[in-house]
Amino acid sequence: MKQAVVQPLEVGLKGKIRVPGDKSISHRAVMFGAIADGTTTVEGFLPGEDCLSTISCFRKLGVVIEQDGERVTIEGKGWDGLVEPSDILDVGNSGTTTRLMLGILATRPFHSVVIGDDSIAKRPMGRVTDPLREMGSIIDGRDHGNFTPLSIRGGSTKGISFQSKVASAQVKSAILLAGLQSEGVTSVTEPALSRDHTERMLEAYGVEVKRDGLSVSVEGGQSLKAQHIIVPGDISSAAFFLVAGAIVPNSKLTLQGVGINPTRSGIIDVLEKMGASIEIENKKMVGGEPIADLTISTSNLKGIEIGGDLIPRLIDEIPVIAVLATQAEGKTVIFDAEELKVKETNRIDTVVTQLEKLGATITATDDGMIIEGKTTLNGASVSSFGDHRIGMAMAIAGLIAKGKMEIERSEAIAVSYPDFFEHIEALTK
Ligand code: S3P
């Protein structure tokens, strides 16, 4: 286990960086390539540990995949190209790998066993295993299939109309993927719109997807055609530098080629509402996803309320938004965000306890947190608890905290942003 030490910056953050490829889109590019007919090529792939777990699982399912940094080639042989694995499928720390892969395995006529790390073992899987069982696949596991290890035997499945209790793209995607090889129509309705990368990318792979407000449906019996996928920069990784640019004195930095899909761009809305100076330039479409260059400068910020439909649009950014809120005048209230409790850690607990150590005025609530600003943060010894986004949020706080910040278990950052510390350094030169 590693410890990172972050010292307060004496200079502002200046310059341009290209953040790594989008994690959600990288997973999907590989998985959809694996079930497509033909050779799929991916550019801008995120070579973080989570996406490498997806590659490793699909190799065990018989798919030939070559990966060299950000370039990936997948030799898809269609749905029937997947074969019964002779080894356990290890998803590491990745919830997206677990849930989307279960949706694919649900219709495959063979047996697989899925395990992951200690964090995955605590994350609820009933939200996908229950509907997949209702469709007809045989799934068992710890606590009746709610937790890993899970075993799955897929087979002939029937379409369902599923009303999801949570706005979750992982749940929506798993059911739609199973629906592609099930009898009849499968539809998913969400309480609020979650990220729509699956819908966009399935269309790019030649699948017909029907959308109607909060509902999405697919007809069974559809196959995918191999594609060339260009992955946009990850707005969830960009978020750390957007916050750093806004709170570190004398900063002005540009993040190039960042995905600004409206189902993901809540962080931009929050920065604008708080009064940050942010410019969005060079907007264009890449492979069905909008991208842009984002420039942020040091700003005077004010506290705001963050809840409702905005939450699924920024759920992964809340740890660093909490850091941002400590530097805003007045109260920031984050509500309707119970889903934070079932991420890589319980992020209400981990954010609140670690920011308290730095001297922030922050209170946990049942569905979020309340932060009073503006406060001076002090360096302390904190932990990521194995959660990449907690580790990075603490490092950004460390850039403005007084004194030295020690971050235990900083190796977790490689899950989504292997070059994170190098990028901080590049912006201080
Ligand atoms: C993801 C969906 C979100 C998000 C996760 C990635 C995806 O999870 O938090 O980091 O790629 O579909 P939920 O579906 O659980 O909300």
How would you portray this structure in words?
By secondary structure, the chain is an alpha/beta fold. It folds into 2 domains: 3-21 and 232-426, UDP-n-acetylglucosamine1-carboxyvinyl-transferase, Chain; 23-230, UDP-n-acetylglucosamine1-carboxyvinyl-transferase, Chain, CATH 3.65.10.10. The chain has 13 helices and 25 strands. The chain has helices spanning 23-35, 49-60, 95-105, 126-135, 142-145, 169-179, 197-204, 235-247, 266-274, 318-326, 347-357, 388-400, 420-426; strands at residues 3-6, 14-17, 36-43, 64-68, 71-77, 89-90, 111-115, 138-141, 147-153, 161-163, 185-189, 209-212, 215-219, 224-225, 228-230, 252-259, 277-286, 289-297, 301-302, 305-306, 328-334, 361-365, 368-373, 381-383, 405-408. The strands form 6 sheets. Strands 3, 4, 5, 14 and 15 form a 5-stranded mixed sheet that branches. α4 packs parallel to α6 (169-179). The longest helix has 13 residues, at 23-35. The protein is globular and about 60 Å long. The relative contact order is 0.14. The mean pLDDT is 98. The structure holds shikimate-3-phosphate. Shikimate-3-phosphate binds next to α6. Phosphoenolpyruvate binds at residues 23, 95, 123, 170, 347, 389. 3-phosphoshikimate binds at residues 23-24, 28, 168, 170, 316, 343.
Concise structural overview:
The protein folds into 2 domains: 3-21 and 232-426, Enolpyruvate transferase domain (UDP-n-acetylglucosamine1-carboxyvinyl-transferase, Chain), CATH 3.65.10.10; 23-230, Alpha-beta prism (UDP-n-acetylglucosamine1-carboxyvinyl-transferase, Chain), CATH 3.65.10.10. The chain has 429 residues and is an alpha/beta fold. The chain has helices at 23-35, 49-60, 95-105, 126-135, 142-145, 169-179, 197-204, 235-247, 266-274, 318-326, 347-357, 388-400, 420-426; strands spanning 3-6, 14-17, 36-43, 64-68, 71-77, 89-90, 111-115, 138-141, 147-153, 161-163, 185-189, 209-212, 215-219, 224-225, 228-230, 252-259, 277-286, 289-297, 301-302, 305-306, 328-334, 361-365, 368-373, 381-383, 405-408.
